[in-house]
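Example 3.2
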Amino acid sequence: MIMKISEVKEFLEQETPDKDILLKLRTDERVGVQKLVESYDKRQEKKFFYKKEYEKKSFYENKCYNRGCKYICGIDEVGRGPLAGPVVAAAVILKKDSYFEGLNDSKKLSKKKREELFEQITKEAVAYSICEVDNIEIEKYNIYNAARIAMMRAVEKLDIKPDFLLIDAMPFENYSIPNFSMIKGDEKSVSIAAASVVAKVYRDNLMEKYAKEYPYYDFENNAGYGTKKHLDALEKYGVSPIHRRDFEPIKSIIKGGKNEQY
């Protein structure tokens, strides 16, 4: 029996289509069928690529598992560069056999993909935690130390104590838990990439909420970064309570007499 084009489409959307039927479809001369088969092959190539990339980015995790570690925690932070809002850190412990298709450094993903991964990661992770360090503490400790504090607090908030920490570009010297810090860790470790996604989505959502409270600065679109619209609003309206007073041009604006307008 010859399958209709609609039936072929439905068949090829299955997770594991029957190999014998697929083989027959490859010899089907109908243009519509061949286009669907070609589209299916491209999807499979993409899946294979993502799987291989995930395996490569599991190198450090596998190394830890082979040494007897059970709970490996990835840690990352977002929000060092913005002029407003907190720096946010996430700590994530993934299951040993976890797989999140397309997981990567959060900055390299679309908003839609980040949000999809956020839902999957927070649902399936062994444990995760999120920590904010606000603009007041950033001014007190400086942004580098504030980021470090946020990361450590995120680890301390976990329900499960990790055996080992994989950290993005932040050394935890003389820390109570064994750890390894690496530059561009969100591109090299699935655990750090997962933490990167969780922190990024959480912070972006938080800045969207702040946008309703402080509507002039376009926080919903710039997440607190110094875009032209944001800088123009600072000049016109002054600074809000969540702006970082030790960052320029905010420091100069305050000196010029334009303080909080709220």
